[in-house]
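Input structure tokens:
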């Protein structure tokens, strides 16, 4: 084994820290700027803290923490030590998190101060984990863990095409290949400046937005969350903005989002959920620019991206370099290549079921390819709901609703929504003797993260079923009273 065998993604992401330590990485409004060298140092002390805490290569570290540059330093610290980073949505309730802790088979968890489990890391370099980091020597130099291409780097929980959450094990090879491919097709250089507004517990904000920029030594203005006024205030410095359709819908609701403001940004990208033709058109009418649409999935990273001129309802472009794509007999998009997950954690059955016999990953999305190899998506094979870029599994919501003794049965669907793309609607059938007019929806707040809770409730006499007895969700999706 030689140093050059080491394909640890850290080496690629933090190359700039070796050659030009002072190069700015994170601009933080109202706080100090952090250079590549600063972030390398912070991640080194965090790596030392992880080792003192007892983590060894291959252990899983669950992080349910607020967005901050420390969250990114923690991801880098995991790479440095060979620890598998497992980020979780901050909106999950404690009950939801328990399921992931069990499944990940780990006692190592970092949460936000006040959540009361594991060590804590706050937005302002505070919390018990930050204290442990502060106790590490300033000049600590943790040797970089050796990584082979197929070694796990991160695990992100997702549900793929079936309802139950599974950990997608992502490798150094997969994440590096995807980052390189994106930097290439989007022409990222060290002169770029990304305005980062996405959450950092999903592939989109954590990998897609950060990695291609870091590979090239570019700068990033790092906002704690998407806030349209803040985005407008910071946009003049940016050359790249990445978002979900809801972000663009919110920007377009602001009269201050003008063509002049958009003029300095050379690349706008959207994905994680379908962008409607109407939203594309509103954006172009306002700014004179087009949004590059990219299609991705936790298990695969980014699969396709458009180039200017490739537009149309559902059109998401061509496969990235080293990504192969075909349409299965059942119209499902299938992909193959080094970008893909290694496996689902502890679920060999699900891993086998997600691949065809000849080794293609089945995305569960339905699409067509034109003669030029451009992919157009038309829907999904599962009844997954995507609201504001977050996935919601109807079964999980239905199970929570059905615990209410007043409710006989329920069906949850996503209905089209201008701001959220889809919004969660629950149809409920009441037990005999319950009065529809007096019905108050159950309180699901302790049970389900806010974004999963139904925004609209409909009491119905019965659910529409087909001859097989299966609920006809298509009819409910277009139902309105
Ligand atoms: C927040 N709320 C939501 C959502 N987000 N409701 C439905 N759908 C959502 N996505 C609700 C909260 O429960 C709360 O309601 C209320 O909105 C305010 O919460 P807050 O957190 O303040 O909301 P926000 O800051 O306005 O958030 C909206 C958002 C955010 C900015 C659009 O959802 C967002 O950044 N989404 C991006 C998701 C993303 O990155 N997805 C990538 C995954 P209440 O008070 O009633 O509780 S897909 C992926 O990674 C693949 C690879 C890919 O292709 O990219
Ligand atoms: P996730 O499981 O959170 O990674 O979400 C992946 C899913 O998001 C994909 O399987 C698609 O259904 C959807 N998705 C991602 N990007 C796009 C896009 N540009 N257009 C339509 N759907 C998308």
């Amino acid at each position: 084994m030689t140093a050059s065998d080491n394909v640890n993604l850290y080496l690629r992401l933090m190359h700039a820290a070796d050659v030009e330590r002072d190069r700015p990485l994170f601009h933080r409004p109202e706080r100090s700027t952090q250079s590549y060298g600063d972030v390398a140092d912070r991640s080194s002390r965090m790596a030392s803290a992880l080792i003192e805490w007892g983590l060894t290569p291959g252990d899983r570290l669950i992080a349910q923490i607020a967005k901050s540059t420390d969250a990114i330093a923690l991801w880098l610290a995991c790479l440095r030590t060979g620890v598998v980073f497992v980020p979780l949505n901050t909106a999950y309730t404690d009950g939801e998190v328990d399921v992931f802790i069990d499944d990940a088979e780990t006692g190592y968890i970092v949460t936000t101060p006040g959540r009361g489990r594991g060590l804590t890391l706050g937005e302002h370099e505070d919390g018990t984990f930050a204290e442990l980091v502060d106790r590490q020597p300033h000049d600590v130099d943790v040797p970089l863990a050796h990584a082979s291409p197929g070694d796990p780097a991160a695990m992100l929980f997702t549900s793929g095409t079936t309802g139950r959450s599974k950990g997608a094990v992502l490798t150094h090879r997969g994440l590096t290949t995807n980052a390189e491919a994106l930097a290439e097709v989007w022409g990222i250089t060290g002169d770029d400046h990304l305005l980062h507004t996405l959450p950092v517990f999903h592939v989109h904000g954590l990998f897609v937005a950060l990695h291609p920029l870091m590979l090239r030594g570019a700068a990033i203005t790092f906002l704690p969350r998407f806030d349209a006024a803040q985005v407008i205030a910071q946009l003049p410095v940016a050359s790249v903005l990445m978002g979900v359709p809801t972000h663009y819908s919110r920007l377009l609701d602001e009269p201050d989002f003008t063509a002049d403001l958009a003029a300095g940004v050379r690349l706008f990208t959207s994905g994680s959920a379908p962008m409607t033709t109407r939203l594309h058109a509103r954006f172009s009418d306002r700014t004179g620019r087009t949004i590059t649409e990219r299609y991705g999935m936790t298990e695969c990273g980014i699969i396709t991206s458009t180039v200017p001129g490739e537009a149309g309802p559902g059109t998401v472009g061509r496969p990235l370099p080293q990504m192969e794509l075909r349409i299965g007999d059942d119209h499902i998009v299938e992909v193959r290549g080094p970008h893909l997950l290694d496996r689902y954690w502890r679920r060999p059955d699900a891993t086998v079921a997600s691949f065809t016999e000849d080794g293609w990953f089945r995305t569960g999305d339905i699409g067509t390819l034109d003669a030029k190899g451009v992919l157009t998506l038309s829907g999904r094979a599962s009844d997954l709901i995507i609201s504001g870029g977050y996935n919601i599994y109807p079964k999980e919501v239905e199970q929570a609703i059905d615990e209410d003794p007043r409710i006989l049965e329920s069906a949850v669907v996503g209905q089209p929504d201008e701001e959220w793309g889809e919004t969660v609607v629950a149809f409920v059938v009441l037990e005999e003797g319950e009065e529809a007019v007096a019905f108050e929806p159950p309180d699901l707040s302790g049970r389900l993260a806010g974004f999963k809770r139904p925004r609209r409730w409909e009491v119905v006499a019965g659910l529409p079923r087909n001859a097989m007895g299966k609920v006809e969700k298509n009819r409910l999706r277009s139902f309105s009273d």
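The first strand starts at residue 24 and ends at 27. The first helix runs from residue 9 to 13.
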